[in-house]
Design a protein that fits this description.
Number of domains: 1
Radius of gyration: 18 Å
Shape: globular
Structural class: alpha/beta
CATH architecture: 3-Layer(aba) Sandwich
Number of helices: 5
Distance between the termini: 43 Å
Strand order of the largest sheet: 3-2-1-4-5-6
Number of strands: 6
Strand content: 15-25%
Length: about 150
C-alpha cells in the first residue's frame, strides 16, 4: 500500500475546531501551522502536536506570510468570524493560488456564493442539523419496526 503524501496545511483559528483539526492532522503526519491572535488559544493543542504556531491577526498579510501560507497545500480557516474566514480564504485561493481552501461559515444560505468564489465551505449549523434530522429518521424507523413486531 503506497504511503500517503504528507501535506503542508495552514489552519487559521485555534479554537475548538481549529485545535481539533491541528491535533488530528499533526498526528497523521502532516506539516501543520496554526495561526491565532490569542496566545492562550494554543493551549488547546495537545502535547504531541508537532507543528508550528504563529501568533497574530490573520487579516494582516504579514501574519499569513509568516505562516508560509503561499506554500500551503491546503488552508483551513476556522475562526468564529465568517467575514475574516472568507477574506483569508479568498486571499489564499485567489492571490496565493493555494490549491485547496476550506472556510467555516455560519450562514448556510451563503454557501453557494462562497463556493462560486472557489472556496470549499463547512457550516457547523448545517452539519449538526443534518445529523439531528438523520437521527430522527432512524429513531422513527426503529419505532415503526418495533411497533410492527419486527
Amino acid at each position: 500500500m503506497p504511503a500517503t503524501k504528507s501535506l503542508f496545511i495552514v489552519i487559521v483559528g485555534c479554537g475548538r475546531l481549529g485545535s481539533y483539526l491541528a491535533n488530528r492532522l499533526s498526528r497523521q503526519g502532516h506539516h501543520v501551522v496554526v495561526v491565532d491572535a490569542h496566545p492562550e488559544a494554543f493551549d488547546a493543542l495537545s502535547p504531541d502536536y508537532s507543528g508550528f504556531r504563529v501568533e497574530g491577526d490573520a487579516s494582516e498579510f504579514a501574519v499569513l506570510s509568516q505562516a508560509n501560507i503561499d506554500q500551503a497545500d491546503m488552508v483551513i480557516v476556522t475562526t468564529n468570524n465568517e467575514n475574516i474566514n472568507v477574506m483569508v480564504g479568498q486571499v489564499a485561493r485567489k492571490l496565493l493560488n493555494v490549491p485547496r481552501v476550506v472556510v467555516r461559515i455560519e450562514e448556510p444560505d451563503r454557501r453557494a456564493t462562497y463556493e462560486q468564489l472557489g472556496l470549499d465551505t463547512v457550516c457547523p449549523a448545517s452539519l449538526v442539523g443534518d445529523e439531528i434530522l438523520q437521527s430522527m429518521v432512524q429513531h422513527t424507523m426503529t419505532t415503526l419496526r418495533s411497533g410492527l413486531g419486527q
